[in-house]
Amino acid sequence: MHDKPLAEMRVLEERMGREPAPEERIHAMIRAYVATARRSPGVYRFVTRPSDGLNHFLDSVTRIITTFLPAGTPSPQIWATGAVGFVERAVDTWMNDLEAADGASTTLTSDQLVTHLVTWLMKGLHA
């Protein structure tokens, strides 16, 4: 399951002609996750129910994230695990809000959600 995020990272690198910065990589991964959830809400709900498959996928994403955190990041495994959990729960809450709004534009757009999540993760709440 983690082959898709890795392939998307390679495409991002090729498109940019350089190795993307950690923030760019995290942005790309969150954008892909949110787009997948938005495109197929039923599949998203099924796949994200607690299971060994979901745990394996989230562990794989966590391992990928630890590989491109800036050198000197304290406890990179813990940071990456927290970031993955933060994004997973935030997207789940966003999806619930979308379903409750029944199409009304009372919640963030996909792009706004991605931007907020990346900012909060990389710069903190007060950025």
Provide the succession of SSEs: HHHHHH
Write down the overall geometry: globular
Low-confidence stretches: none
The structure class reads: mainly alpha
Measured distance between first and last alpha carbons: 33 Å
Kindly estimate the percentage of residues that lie in beta strands according to DSSP: under 5%
Q: What's the rounded overall pLDDT mean?
A: 83
Number of helices: 6
Extended strand count:
0
What would you report as the Rg, rounded to the nearest angstrom? 15 Å
Concise description?
By secondary structure, this protein is mainly α. The protein has helices spanning 3-16, 22-39, 41-47, 52-67, 76-101, 110-123.
Please explain how this structure is put together.
With 127 residues, the chain is mostly helical. 75% of the residues lie in helices and 0% in strands. The protein contains 6 helices and no strands. The chain has helices spanning 3-16, 22-39, 41-47, 52-67, 76-101, 110-123. Helix 1 crosses helix 2 (22-39), helix 2 (22-39) runs antiparallel to helix 6 and helix 4 (52-67) packs across helix 5. The longest helix has 26 residues, at 76-101. The mean pLDDT is 83.
